[in-house]
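ZP: hey, is the uridine-diphosphate-N-acetylglucosamine complex queued? I don't see it on the tracker
AM: it wasn't, my bad. submitting now with these inputs:
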Amino acid sequence: MRIASIVGARPQFVKAAPVSRALAERGLAEVLVHTGQHYDPQLSDVFFEQLKLRPPDHHLGIGSASHGAQTGRMLEAIEAVLATERPDWTLVYGDTNSTLAGALAAAKLGVPVAHVEAGLRSFNRAMPEEINRVVADHLSALLLCPTEAAARNLKAEGITRGVHLVGDVMYDSALYNLRLAEQRPSPVAALGLAERGYYLATIHRPANTDDPERLGRLVGELAQLDAPVILPLHPRTAKALDAGALGGPRGSLRPIGPASYLDMLLLERHARAILSDSGGVQKEAYFLGVPCITLRAETEWVETVEAGWNALVDADAVRLREAIARVAAWDRARAPFGGSGARRNLYGDGHAAEAIAEILTRPQEK
Ligand code: UD1
């Protein structure tokens, strides 16, 4: 059996690594296709190195463009690869333009699609990712869900065949790589920080970066926090900040370059709290038992909010300050934002990738 895996953006490298390992352990041949959506070494090469992903069999070199142009170029290039490679399955991950292009190219060629991280919904169609998720799910023969909420979302859209609750491959990756990260020099010490003596923030969603007023408000709030705020910058955020939003006093803000995966895990683990608009970072905060303050109005990872470990504050200064006050008053016997305190295993047992590899080898219902 041959499986084509389509990746292209930073979080997809994190998701694909445990799956690649699990496929290899079962003796399944994998053709790794990198669309080139992320091309900066700090967003791509460093991840391949740290995650021990073998170099892609096909690098399509597509790069940045408008959504339609980027997705269209990927579609054409992925189709050519799949037409030659003729895999038994195409695996797509998450919700980026690479996911959409991979799912569409495969489905049109009659190659069955398996979607890792199926069923996530923000119910906000203004997010490009929401469109990618909905389309990818409706094109997939196998829907590999990380959470119960994801499987429920699919059911609500009438998708019940081929749905499997497997757990979250990002949890697999975090467990596996945290041990490796801890053997490396600590980025916390390198930045002159004490454990729990800083906040970690990331902002990269277009809804936050492309609205100068909103970005300025968020950055202004972060600058006033009571401890250093480490801010690893996505290239788009860096551009937006250079264009003006960082014009005010920087206060507590400490912008740094994009963090590697292993450094990010350690920066997350030792932060007092994490403030982010990223999906993956919200989950990693939960895995590591660190309070997360989400700079969005909604989340796909609703269980972290229900468990009291994630506060949705949007770009609202009052709600952000309230959440910070809750973290300061947190007694650790409970969850920081309410709830019982015990962190349930919401994302599986750390073996989601093995479950995926096993499901791929089963005879499929027609
Ligand atoms: C993509 C995903 C998003 C995911 C994120 C992870 C889509 C629609 N979005 O967003 O879901 O959370 O990846 O990081 O697919 N750029 C560089 N260097 C690079 C890549 C991009 O400088 O290597 C800059 C370019 O200016 C580009 C911009 O970042 O225009 C946006 O990149 P793009 O690939 O379109 O999406 P992301 O914002 O990274």
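AM: back. Residues 67-85 form the longest helix (19 residues).
ZP: great, adding it to the tracker
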